[in-house]
Amino acid sequence: VLSRLNELNYMISTSLDKYELDRASRPILDFVDDLSTWYLRRSRDRFKSEDISIKHAASYYMTHVLRELSKIIAPFVPFTAEKVYSRVGGEKESVHLENWPKAGQVDTEIIENMKKVREVVTSALEIRQKSGHKVRQPLAKLSIPENLSQNLLDIIADEVNVKEVVVGGSEVKLDTELPEELKK
Fold this sequence. Notes:
Elements: H1 2-17, H2 21-42, H3 44-47, H4 52-73, H5 78-87, H6 108-131, E1 139-144, H7 150-160, E2 162-167, E3 173-174, H8 180-183
Parallel strand pairs: 1-2
Antiparallel strand pairs: 1-3
């Protein structure tokens, strides 16, 4: 999420420097979608964790992201930015008194990999829906064409609720056969 925030900051800053206001505002919605429907949902367990350090770190990063986001969106949605800024403990009287944030390092590899993960998850969930298997019903196997790290394969397995994700083939294939052990 920090790389996505830095990428957003860089894209908006670059477009604003060229006075391309329409181009500067477009990536905001994509970022908000990534933040709310992916990162926040994937972090839910960290926010509810019994381990105080994990819970604190999750809250710290979310607060940081929202504070920086409020600074970035302030020229486009000033009242919303002001509300977010004040709710996450902005240090100044107004977000509009803050300096423009500097974009940090963007890890393009992780951004691209997470984009691939989301595409695979979307495809697999469409297959699940067409086959009539709800996500809460575990399935045995998902085959994907992308060769990703084990950490990313684990995210896919968790999102799609499958026991195993294997790399192979040219498309996303979900084993929708339901053995007795998975029914239980």
